[in-house]
Amino acid sequence: MKKILYVGCLGFSLLLGGCVASQDEIQALKVKVLNLETTLQQQSQNQKAIANELNQLKGRIDALEKKLNEDLLLEVKTKALAEIEELKSSQAKLSSQVEDLVASKEDLYKTFTKQSEELKTRIEALELKVKSLEEKGAYPQATSSSVSNETSSKPSNQTVSNATQETKSQTLTSSSDATSNGTAKTEASKQQGSPQKELTEVEFYNQAVDLYQQKKWDEAMNAFKQYLQKYPKGKFLAQSHYWLGEIYYNKKSYEDAILSYQKVIESSAPATLKASAMYKQALSFKNLGDKEAYTILLKRIIKLYPKSKEAEEAKKLLGIKR
Predict the structure, then answer these.
(1) CA distances for 110 relative to 101, 115, 116, angstroms
(2) Quick check: 281 and 261 in contact, CB under 8 A?
(3) In angstroms, what is the C-alpha Rg of the chain?
(4) Environment class of residue 291 by beta-carbon count within 10 Å: exposed (0-12), middle (13-18) or buried (19+)?
């Protein structure tokens, strides 16, 4: 395009010059035109070379971008794989812990089942023993399940604590003081030879207590049993069972003593009497050689009657500091 314009301009100039140019000038112009054509060709080639270089650069850039993307992707993949491996490792550890927990749970369950079966067997054996003992007694039976629940085995020792002695005296005083006059009148009427009238409930009970205080164990035992038979809903049921327990204890009939004390524990007797009965029941079990039941009952005393003197004695026996 530039060549055409140049030639046109040259022709126009010649026309303006009146077409007077010489042959040399025309030749010179032709040379210039050729030079221009050569220059234009070179420039065109240079442009093509530059275009080729640009295309090459673009290709390299594309290749570098692709490689960079691949490198980034590889790095991301590597990190992801590392995290996956970590997660797998953590999962393996957790699985191992879960398996350990499951195994531990199974072991605990087996141990619990075994202990439950052993405890059940012991309770059944104790219930049979209690039933057998009750069949030997002459007074109403206590529920064997209640006995097993309250005593849970067998405990015991020998001497009654100061708290127990005080409880007995309090129990006696509450009834004997109230009826001492009646007893005195009864004795006086006997001495005067007047017709003997039937004893009242209070007099009947006090008569049995008098025999106990005189240490006439067999006579006192019969008297308390007669009272229980004559007054099955009497005022001194719990006290009578307690004294029967004391008689059996003094006679070293510890199994019968345990049953009598149990009836006191199951009754609506005052807490002081129940605490004393449970304490003597513990001592009875100990004398039978059942230290486990002995310990259980002492702990029950501390829990159920924490302010009682029996609880203080129980703490001493168990070695518990106040």
Answers:
(1) 14, 9, 10
(2) yes
(3) 58
(4) middle
Largest CA distance in the chain: 197
> How far, in Å, CA of 71 to CA of 292, rounded?
75
> Could you give the angle at the alpha carbon of 155 between the alpha carbons of 309 and 227, nearest 5°?
75
100 sits in which H/E element: helix 23-136
Token output for 142: 């206590």
Say how far apart CA 125 and CA 147 lie, in whole Å: 12
Q: Who's near 208: CB < 8 A, 6+ residues apart? A: 220, 223, 224, 226, 227, 240, 243
The two structure tokens encoding residue 116? 């439950």
- Range 298-302, long-range pairs (CB < 8 A, 24+ positions): 298/155, 300/150, 301/275
Q: How many residues appear in the chain?
A: 322
C-alpha to C-alpha distance for 38 and 34, rounded to whole angstroms = 6
DSSP string, 182-222: HHHHHHHHHHTTPPPPPPPHHHHHHHHHHHHHTT-HHHHHH
pLDDT means per 10 residues, the chain with 322 residues, are 55 52 80 86 87 88 82 74 79 82 79 67 65 52 34 35 44 44 44 65 95 96 96 94 97 96 95 96 95 94 95 93 73
Query: Please, are residues 154 and 293 in contact by the beta-carbon 8 Å criterion?
Result: yes
Residues 308 and 317 sit within 8 Å (Cβ to Cβ)? no
CA dihedral (208, 286, 139, 263) positive or negative:
positive
